[in-house]
Write a structure and sequence with these properties.
The protein has about 150 residues and is mainly alpha-helical. Helix content is about 75%, strand content about 5%. The N and C termini lie far apart (about 55 Å).
């Protein structure tokens, strides 16, 4: 959906409908944040599968993942819309970007908080999970080498 909204964004912007532009920008923002959130959930699943191998039963795991994967971005989008729906709009309507024909976030502060900071948080969580998995893997490798040595 992120790709579909991104590819149709310029075409939909050409209709010069402010409500349509706000909707397209909001959908683009939502699906981008959802992609980041699902990437983070994949790393959590990776951690559970490789580090916490046993005793990992989480009741209604898929439902919880879906609620987090689709719900957290919805909360961010709802907060942006509650604060001011005019944060979304057409860049060509602003004087600083006269030739852009794309519906997106118009305020730099909102962009840095709701996209860049969000991505940075997800990236840190992914990096932490990755480092943890690597440490566990290196410990298992050393243990296997030691046991092979003693078997010989």
């Amino acid at each position: 959906m992120l790709h579909m909204v991104f590819l149709t964004n310029s075409w939909l912007t050409s209709f010069n409908q402010p409500g349509l532009c706000i909707t397209v920008a909001m959908l683009l923002h939502y699906f981008l944040l959802a992609a980041f959130t699902w990437m983070c959930l994949e790393s959590v699943h990776f951690y559970l599968a490789l580090v916490k191998v046993f005793k990992v039963y989480v009741p209604k795991y898929i439902l919880k993942c879906c609620i987090a994967g689709w719900g957290i971005p919805a909360i961010v989008i709802t907060l942006v819309l509650i604060i001011d729906k005019d944060f979304y709009g057409n860049g060509s309507l602003s004087e600083t970007h006269p030739y852009s024909n794309f519906c997106w976030i118009q305020d730099n502060t909102v962009f840095y908080i709701s996209v860049v900071a969000y991505f940075f948080l997800m990236f840190l969580l992914n990096a932490a999970m990755f480092i943890t998995v690597l440490q566990i893997h290196s410990v298992k490798t050393r243990t296997q080498k030691t046991s092979r040595f003693w078997k010989r």
